[in-house]
Amino acid sequence: MTKSFPGVLALSILLVWVLPVQAEDLAVTVYNTNLGVIKDARVFELKSGYNEISMVDIAARIDPTSVRINLDGQGEITVVEQNFQYDLLSPGKLLEKYLDDSVMLVTEGGKEFEGKLLGFDNSSMVVEVDRGGVVIVSREQVTDVSLPPGRKDLIVKPTLVYQVYASRNTTATAEVAYMTEGMNWHAEYVAVLGEDDDTMEISSWVSVDNRSGATYEEARLKLIAGDVHRVPKKGIEAPEAAMEMRYAAAPQPIEEKAFFEYHMYTVPRPTTIRDREVKQIQFLPETDIETEKIYNFDAQKGTSVRVVMEFENSRDNNLGVPLPGGKVRVFKADDDGSLEFIGEDSIDHTPKDEDVKVYVGDAFDIVAERKRTNYDRVSDRVVVESYEIRVRNHKDEAIEVVVSEHIYGDWSIRESSHEYEKQKADLVEFVLPVGVDGETVLTYTVRRRY
Q1: pLDDT tens string 348-371
Q2: C-alpha distances in angstroms, 288 versus 192, 200, 326, 356, 422?
Q3: Model pTM?
């Protein structure tokens, strides 16, 4: 029979010592910039004098320099020292902790070596046996390693450890807040176009992606939309892990409000955010809105005529809430009633009463061509150019195509076959009506100073 130490710690079993702790409150705020802020309150029993308290189940990707702790209890309580222990156990690290300590090795055939562990590497282990002398044992021959129990520096999870002084025995609440990487969120929109492409049914879910290395049970969840400035971090991102998808239906709508220069979305009930999980929460229930289909030709964005669905994010249009940025997938019902995918686009954070434009694809039956027909250099800094844009419509209905032209420098249009509207300092738009199986030709001449 193989011998072992009393209360032996086998290499295949890892233990951790944790002081009694009671979860009090947990809140998670997720930003859409690979950032989460965790607020965790726990209750500890402190004795008069110096105490060591540990907080496990924290994010593995915590920024330890961001940790803030507040201890509330009777008498004087002072945090003397804070440590973040992240050197997690592995078989190799466990053996390192038992160097110069007693071990027992069992090899194939049941032979035992008991003594002090002097060293090890990938191929062998060196033991000073109790009967005297040193033996070198091949790692391939070792079947069991037994280690004595009692060590309290074995860390199996990232842990915050505090040295705390208390002037008396007391029950204290420790409120800890810290930042962690590995948390993100974004919105996902699903839109179904009506038969005439002038109405749309839209709904939305928010996806919370947790790769922080911790699970947050029954946490109060808030989401921040906006571009929060952060100092760039040097280093290599951790590899992405496989994600599990979970859905959480929301019987109450997510609450939205302005927060500083951003927008905050609060989930109205506690929710569990598991590590390596994508949780989806309903944000916008199915809503009918009015929309407009726009054909746009912008030579800077390609040679095709783009199809854009545009709608107003207003209360009059059954919306009127700040829409977080995310992907919009658009579907349309076929004659048999089945929904078919017709395109998708990403939208930025959109305030209320602003227009939302969703580029769904390129028109098959509309063709546009653009060419420069004249170029005169009047001086070193002044040129006069002429352009021709031809748009042909092979659809069985008349259409309008918005032609976008980007003109740089100090410019003025001298001649134009169609009316135009200056949208920005470097953007002008023409609206061209094109009949069934017809062609419309736009010509214009511009003088530019640069």
Answers
A1: 999 999 999 999 999 999 999 999
A2: 9, 6, 19, 15, 32
A3: 0.72
